[in-house]
Design a protein that fits this description.
Layout (H helix, E strand, L loop, with lengths): L1 H16 L6 E3 L4 E8 L2 E8 L4 E8 L10 E7 L7 H15 L2 H9 L12 H11 L3 H12 L4 H19 L4 H16 L2 H11 L5 H8 L4 H15 L2 H19 L2
Antiparallel strand pairs: 1-2, 2-3, 3-4, 4-5
Helix pairs in contact: 1-2, 2-11, 3-8, 4-7, 6-9, 7-8
Length: about 260
């Protein structure tokens, strides 16, 4: 499959910079799967033949080097017959944004076993906490599970949570919901696992406008503030690639809605 090779090659080039191994083919009854590993963490690229979709996964490796339970990071529908090169490139750009998260890079560089195991709060817990602040997310979360069979956390946060946080920050910066969000972000940053921390800093807060970003940055704890300063600088260096990616994603989304 040319699309799989394109996405695999793009991920390989980026992950090699972070010290990951060459793609290793693995058996998976769902379809074609390759794994990129470094220290005790790994990413997986899967094309699910039955459901016609690409999935970017992450896991912590066991003592014997075998992958543990996989966690889905991003999911995109892709029809092998109708999907175009532009669709595949759009999916690749989305996956690259996930693996370029600074906290992910830091963990690989440190190569400290057990780091993720010390933090047990996962993205699902984070999303459920968000539902307490934005009750309307409950129906959207259920729809996400029905349509895709699981929650595409990065995509869901950007589509449903970022706009609400942006609106709150712009209209009610000193409101109780904003204070609750800041408290939640601090809690997730301190106690969340690798995926949760990346979602809070990269997928959510770094997707806000400059003014909204400042509202939250000024109200979160010192530890998270320091990370966000670095995160924002990282985003500033990639303005053009992000614009290109967003333009291409419009091509892929109609494909997702047809299935």
């Amino acid at each position: 499959m040319k699309a799989f090779e394109l996405i695999e090659t793009g991920l390989q080039e980026e992950l090699a910079k972070q010290g990951f191994s060459q793609a290793q083919p693995l058996e998976d009854e769902a379809g074609k799967l390759v794994m990129f590993s470094a220290a005790d963490v790994a990413y997986g690229l899967l094309y699910d033949v039955k459901h016609q979709r690409f999935e970017l996964r992450s896991t912590t490796l066991k003592e014997d080097g075998q992958p543990g339970a996989w966690r889905s990071l991003s999911l995109w529908l892709f029809d092998e017959k109708e999907g175009t090169k532009a669709d595949a490139e759009s999916i690749l750009n989305d996956f690259l944004e996930v693996v370029r998260g600074p906290k992910r890079v830091a963990v690989v560089q440190q190569k400290r076993r057990g780091k993720e195991g010390e933090r047990s709060v996962d993205p699902l817990f984070f999303v459920n906490r968000l539902v307490n602040i934005f009750p309307e997310l409950r129906d959207e979360l259920n729809e996400e599970k029905i349509v895709y069979g699981q929650v595409r956390y990065v995509t869901f946060i950007k589509a449903h949570v970022v706009p609400r946080c942006e609106d709150l920050a712009q209209k009610y910066p000193d409101s109780d919901p904003v204070k609750k969000l800041c408290s939640l972000f601090d809690d997730m940053y301190k106690n969340g696992d690798l995926d949760t921390r990346s979602i809070v800093t990269i997928s959510l807060l770094n997707s806000l406008s400059d003014s909204a970003f400042q509202v939250f940055t000024q109200r979160v704890g010192e530890e998270l503030q320091k990370d966000l300063k670095f995160t924002r600088k990282l985003k500033g260096k990639k303005i053009k690639p992000e614009k290109k990616k967003k333009k291409k994603k419009v091509v892929a989304k109609p494909l997702s809605n047809d299935h």
